[in-house]
Design a protein that fits this description.
This protein is of the alpha/beta class. The chain has two domains: 123 residues, Response regulator (Rossmann fold), CATH 3.40.50.2300; 94 residues, Response regulator (Rossmann fold, 3-Layer(aba) Sandwich). Helices cover 52% and strands 13% of the residues. The chain has eleven helices and five strands; from the N terminus they run βαβαβαβαβααααααα. A five-stranded parallel sheet has the order 2-1-3-4-5, sandwiched between helices. The termini are far apart.
């Protein structure tokens, strides 16, 4: 299947550059562009893309609010946040709003395409070391750090808690399966149950939950 992508950025050169790069990749098609968050919401409804490449800092409506509204509308599109800054103060909030991950704008064409494929497949873009580091940093910068949530965590089995910790550490399903010496299909089942029990949308929110509740703490 071809992955349909919507590019959201207020800079025309950025939109055109990413469009050229992605359209050159097998199995990826750029189906539209938007110049701000408000237009992005309308384009998601009209075009039904699989992945939205979302800039954060834009006029009219920023990417954070747009991400929040797209996720709240239960759109099928996965949001992959793009940022110029490797410590953008809004990235943490975007992850909490439901973004499935983020990339720096200086990512290579290969990294950009791989990021789109990973997010489209329902995985969180957590594996790269820069992403893992940023999630840790933004968890420390949360305005209201919480201790372990007894209600949410109590819903998880011991094995589900173990899987959640490994998700937060940036491991893929295959890597978790190898670590726990079980089938990858078993890990997929655990991940699905974790998301349902905690009321979370995807692996990214699960990772943020693990850091916020201090199931995982910064090294």
């Amino acid at each position: 299947m071809t992955i349909r992508v919507l590019i959201v950025d207020d800079q025309m050169m950025v939109r055109e550059g990413f469009s050229v790069l992605l359209n050159a990749m097998e199995g990826i098609e750029v189906v539209g562009e938007a110049v701000d968050g408000r237009q992005a919401i309308a384009q998601v409804a009209a075009l039904r893309p699989d992945v939205v490449l979302m800039d954060i800092r834009m006029p009219e409506m920023n990417g954070l609010e747009a991400t929040r509204q797209i996720v709240a509308a239960d759109a099928d599109a996965k949001v992959l946040v793009l940022t110029t800054f490797d410590l953008d103060e809004y990235v943490y909030q975007a992850l909490r709003a439901g973004a499935s991950g983020f990339l720096l704008k200086d990512a290579s064409a290969r990294q950009l395409a791989e990021g789109v494929r990973v997010v489209a497949a329902g995985e969180a873009l957590l594996a790269p070391s820069v992403t893992k580091r940023l999630i840790v940093e933004f968890s420390k910068l949360a305005q209201t750090p919480r201790t372990v949530d007894p209600v949410g965590v109590a819903e998880l089995t011991e094995r589900e808690t173990e899987v959640l910790v490994l998700i937060a550490q940036g491991l893929s399903n295959g890597e978790i399966a190898d670590r726990l010496v079980v089938a990858e299909s078993t890990i997929k089942t655990h991940v699905s149950r974790i998301l349902v029990k905690l009321g979370l949308r995807d692996r990214t929110q699960a990772a943020v939950f693990a850091y916020e509740t201090r199931l995982v703490t910064p090294a």
